[in-house]
Design goal:
There is one protein chain. The chain is of the alpha+beta class and 297 residues long. It is built from 8 helices and 10 strands. It has a 10-stranded antiparallel beta sheet with strand order 1-3-4-5-2-7-10-9-8-6, with helices on both faces.
């Protein structure tokens, strides 16, 4: 097997500019069953849509680091998104990406790519994102940098969620349904046409038992759950969302997302932290774990 190309790490890509378009934002909201009025009327763009303008640059890093033979060994392990501004329609984003770290374990290799987007007019930061990608049973051969710290105190998180809705930290439960055509709609809205999401035969050939829901579609549904349940349906209040993808959902599944009062590492009195765990409703299989959101007050 070929080693990962450490020479491509720490090298910033060139930048690209994308203007946030209301039609694209509305399509993304509809593709993720998002009920947020300010997303459906095109005033603001759903927050997880922010992966779309940067994906080309993220893949530029990935393709420079990861040998092509390993591309289909990847699973999206974690995603951390820090919002310095809300995604308002008409905002022009200038974005780039950079390889942050490579970690090798017996079970596989983790690659973390960071992207940054700024307002192309003012130069002010809009969003930074950390994509954690795990290459199953792949020995990348090299290590580079330090793993990303998403700021979660896992001990406090575990204690808060351990008793479910019996916990003193429990706040609210939000239900969402994965439609039979969910992956096809999400592929169109996001541009992610990975065959494990839309080609049943291919998904079975790689041991998945059939097509699975995009992880970022699941994250998007948890994000609107947070905005509606905790943020009075005001998308401008979402300041950060970090999740770990534990297991995939399938079309037809129901998702139960439970929120708890959390405790962030920072001391910003203007930020509220909430832990979340998302499970498949039918069997309580954990879908999103070690996850939290920060909302402005």
């Amino acid at each position: 097997m070929s080693d990962f190309n450490v020479g491509a790490m720490g090298v910033e890509t060139g930048s690209s500019v994308t203007t946030l378009d209301s039609e694209a934002g509305i399509a993304y909201a509809l593709a993720t069953n998002d009920p947020t009025p300010l997303h459906l009327d095109g005033t603001f763009i759903p927050p997880i849509y922010a992966v779309v303008p940067v994906w080309e640059k993220v893949f530029e890093v990935v393709s420079g680091v990861v040998p092509e033979e390993h591309f289909f060994s990847v699973v999206h392990g974690e995603q951390d998104m820090i919002f310095h501004q809300p995604l308002r329609t008409g905002l022009a984003l200038r974005s780039h990406a950079i390889g942050e770290s490579i970690s090798v374990k017996d079970s596989g290799t983790t690659l973390i790519v960071k992207s940054e987007s700024v307002d192309d007019v003012t130069g002010q930061p809009v969003i930074e994102q950390y994509f954690t990608m795990f290459y199953r049973k792949v020995d990348g051969g090299v290590t580079f940098g330090e793993p990303h710290d998403n700021g979660l105190d896992t001990d406090q998180y575990g204690e808060a969620i351990s008793q479910g809705d019996k916990s003193e930290a429990f706040i609210k439960v939000v239900e969402a349904h994965m439609d039979d055509d969910q992956t096809f709609r999400y592929a169109q809205a996001s541009g992610d046409f990975m065959p494990i999401h839309i080609d049943d035969e291919f998904a079975r050939s790689v041991g998945l038992g059939g097509i699975i829901i995009h992880g970022l579609c699941t994250m998007a549904q948890a994000s609107w759950a947070a905005i509606s349940a905790l943020g009075d349906s005001d998308p401008t209040r979402l300041k950060r969302m970090a999740v770990r993808f534990s297991h995939p959902l399938r079309p037809g599944d129901d998702l139960t997302t439970t929120f708890f009062i959390g405790s962030g590492k920072g001391s910003d009195s203007e930020i509220e932290t909430y832990y979340l765990v998302s499970k498949r409703s039918s069997d309580d299989e954990i879908i999103l774990t070690n996850s939290y959101v920060e909302l402005g007050k």
